[in-house]
Amino acid sequence: MAAGRYRRFLKLCEEWPVDDTKRGRDLGAYLRQRVAQAFREGENTQIAEPEACEQMYQSLARIHSNYYKHKYPRPRDTSFSGLSLEEYKLILSTGIESTALLPGWFANDSLRGHRELCNKTDMLDGKTCGIAQRKF
């Protein structure tokens, strides 16, 4: 049974794309690393918790197949910022100074002067959840 799980995880790793623009932060690369650690002995690896392993595989397979994207379709491919998918990919890529790329990155510049909105998005660890620092 472990051999079958191992092969299924390997197939998932082969199908999962690696995004070179997110060096050190890519989910596909992380998945490959974790599968290599979990199945150190390959098909001969003994699984301590087969149910948890199966649940993890099913969850990853749903993410990979865009199950929830199809189950809950979005009416529009945009967000509150008005940025396109390509602009988000550019901002989230590793090694690019996003503040220099899109100086007025909100479509209508609607958040200018609303610093209190940014303060409300502070996370518990003190960091903000903003995708790019913006000076108001």
Structure description:
- The protein is mainly α.
- The chain has a domain at 5-91.
- The chain has seven helices and no strands.
- α1 (2-15) packs antiparallel against α2 and α1 packs parallel to α3 (50-64).
Q: What's the gist of this structure?
A:
With 136 residues, the protein is an all-alpha fold.
Oligomer: single chain
Shape: elongated
Helix segment tally: 7
SS-derived structural category = mainly alpha
Distance between the termini: 58 Å
Which value, in Å, is the CA radius of gyration?
A: 20 Å
Q: Output the helix-strand order.
A: HHHHHHH
Q: Can you give the helix content as a percent range?
A: 40-55%
* Secondary structure tally: strands: 0
- Mean pLDDT metric: 74
Instruction: Indicate the low-confidence ranges by residue numbers.
Output: 105-136
Largest sheet: none
- Measured by DSSP, the beta-strand proportion falls in under 5%
InterPro entries: UQCC2
Protein name: Mitochondrial nucleoid factor 1
Keywords: Mitochondrion, Mitochondrion nucleoid, Transit peptide
Organism: Phyllostomus discolor
